[in-house]
Structures are given as structure tokens and as C-alpha cells.
Amino acid sequence: MIPVLRINYIGRLIWLSLFGRWIFVLLVPWFVPTISYLLIGDPYFSSVSNFLLGTLMVLFMTILAFVPHDWAAQYIAHKYPAVQSSGKRAFYTALAFCVLTGIYISVYGLLIIHLRPFNAQLDFGKMVNVYLFEFVAVLMLTCLYEVNYSLGKWKESKINKEAMKKAGLQGQLQSLKSQVNPHFLFNSLNTLSALITEEPKRAEQFVDEMAKVYRYLLQTNQHELTTLATEIRFIKSYYHLLRTRYDTGLELKIWVEEEALGKFIPPLTLQLLVENAVKHNTILEKNPLFIEITALGGEYLEVRNNLLEKSTPVKSTRLGLANIEAKYQLLSDRQPVIEAGAGYFKVLLPLLAEKTENQ
User: In the chain, at which end, N or C, are there fewer CB atoms within 10 A of the end residue's CB?
Assistant: First the structure.
């Protein structure tokens, strides 16, 4: 415990990342003596004082050089965070390390050649060995940083996928609870029963649409994302069931351009929002509930409904909205915008590419 605390304390003092602290600790025992010998020569081992003081001098120089290297690695990783950018990230990290190392070694070498501490034998010819050794060290350091970063991203991705799977299962469970419950089945079967007697053709269509709804609900959470086109096909089937039940008391309008249909959203997002609107508003033929789904420039999808307050308001649990927000947090840096105004409620959903920002 004490060594770990000391490493973290020293790391904070010299502003190193956690990984940088461990790399520095592993670097010191072999790198500092080796580079000390290359910079000083045989006098480095000629006496105990030369060895100790020379090691301290080079250790100090190494600290001054290592800190900017760690900063550069952190900056490049922040600029190119995607796992797919591994090659680009490694190239720029190696380039930054080479530039920084070249500057520091050149300055230190010139100072040692000029000042000759500890009777150092360094000259411009021997500097070639120093540069070669540092080049090998740079390549090794670049590999270590990149392997560490890639492993960290892999672990993060694995954790996110597990969390996404859990959120998906929760969303599926919530959807099934809201749809496959006795009340929903009772209403649907009552509607179907009336249609069979009075309008058999509409009854047949109702059964087809109901089958589509249940099939989608049961299968859709196998994927983290679904195309907007697929989700809209589902919501039309879902709306058909609601429309058959509420008749002209419910109106759904969809305005989505062709370019937006290939974008992606988390599955069941539209169903949760439509269900939310139906649940919390009065639905009357003389005063219909209007739900509008509109694509905004291929970047956002707006889901909007008018507010028709119920005489006995339904207590909101926000589970549906929380589920949507949780999915977006796992899939993207872009988040839904929820807005309740005078007489309306709307949600702006980011339309995502298949490979999202956080993947």
C-alpha cells in the first residue's frame, strides 16, 4: 500500500497520468543507469560519488523530459480517442516523442560536452549511440502507451456493451410490461372482437399489424441501434392499433426525408415517446391528441405532441424518458433534449451514424 501511495503522490507532484507514473517507476531502474553511462562514459563507474551524483543528475534530467512526453501522449489520445485511430494515434505519439526526445537529448548532450561534469567523456561522435538508444526507448514507450490505451478502450467498450445490454433488457421489459399486460390485451381483443363481427377485413389487418408489433418488441433488442426507417415502420403498425382503438381522437403525422431514413436511433425510442403521450393526455374525438414526428436536417428527430390534461393526471415515473437517456449516454456524446412548453411537449432525438461517437 505504501509504495502505491508514494507513486501516486510523486505522480501528482509532477503532473503525470496514472499510467505515466507506473511507466516512470519501471523506467528508472534500467533507463537512468544506461543513459547515465552513455552520457558520462567510464567515469560514471569510477567512484561511488560519481555513480550516485551522476545518477541523480540524469534522474532529474529524465523527470524534466518525461513529463512533457506523458502530456503529449495524453493530448494525442484525447484528440484521437477512437479505437479505430490506433495507427494514427501511435504515429503521432511516436513523432511527438521523437521531437521531444531529440530536443532534450541535444540540449543535455551539449551541456555535458561543454561543462564536462564528473569528467564526462561524451563527444559529438558518441552522441550517435545516445540518439540510437533513445530512439529504441521511444519506440518501446510508444508501444506501451498505445497498448495500455487500446486495452483500456477495449475494457471500456466491453463494460459499455454489458451496460447497453442491461439497458436494452430493461427497455424490452418495460415495453413488454406496457404492451403485453392484461389491460392492453383486453382492449386489443375487445377491439378485434368487434371488428370480426362488423368489419372482418379490418379485423384481418388489425391482426397483421398486431403481429408486427409483438414481433418487433420481442426481437428488436438484439441490436443496440436500428435504422429510422425500421423504427418508423414499427411505429406505423403500433399507431394502427392505437388508431383502431381511439379512432379520430388520435392523429400521428410523420415528416421524414429520405436522407434521414438511413440514420440510426436506439430501438423502441419512438414507441416509448408515443406511449408516453397517450398515457398522459386525454384522447377525445372532439379534441384529438396530435403527435408529430419530424426529421430536422438529418441530424435530429423531433417528437412533439399537444398537451391535453386529464381530469385525473397520471403520475409520471419518467422511466421511459430515463431509459432513452440512458441508451444515448452509452451510445453517443450527443444527448436527447426534452422540453415541455405551454401546450406542448417535445423531445429532440439525435440521429446517429452506425458507428457512433462512443464506439
Answer: N
> Residue 156 — very low, low, confident or very high, per pLDDT cuts 50/70/90?
confident
Distance in angstroms (rounded) separating the CA atoms of residues 110 and 265: 60
Q: What are phi and psi of 82, to 5 degrees?
A: -70, 145
Closest to 188 in 3D by CA, of 237, 232, 151, 143 = 237
Four-residue CA torsion sign, 273, 274, 277, 279: negative
What is the 3 state secondary structure string of the chain?
CHHHHHHHHHHHHCCCCHHHHHHHHHHHHHHHHHHHHHHHCHHHHCCHHHHHHHHHHHHHHHHHHHHHHHHHHHHHHHHCCCHHHHHHHHHHHHHHHHHHHHHHHHHHHHHHHHHCHHHCCCCCCCHHHHHHHHHHHHHHHHHHHHHHHHHHHHHHHHHHHHHHHHHHHHHHHHHHHHHCCHHHHHHHHHHHHHHHHHCHHHHHHHHHHHHHHHHHHHHHHHCCCEEHHHHHHHHHHHHHHHHHHHHHHEEEEEECCHHHHCCEECCCHHHHHHHHHHHHCCCECCECEEEEEEEECCCEEEEEEECCCCCCCCCCCCHHHHHHHHHHHHHCCCCCEEEEECCEEEEEEECECCCCCCC
pLDDT in tens, 297-348: 889 999 999 999 887 766 666 677 888 888 888 788 889 999 998 899 999 9
pLDDT value at 39 more than 60: yes
pTM: 0.52
In whole angstroms, give the CA distance from residue 131 to residue 101. 9
Instruction: Give the contacts of 156 (CB within 8 A, at least 6 positions apart).
Output: none
pLDDT tens digit string along 182-202? 555 676 777 787 788 788 888
pLDDT given for residue 9 in this prediction: 42
Average pLDDT for the chain: 84
Give me the pLDDT at residue 59, please: 93
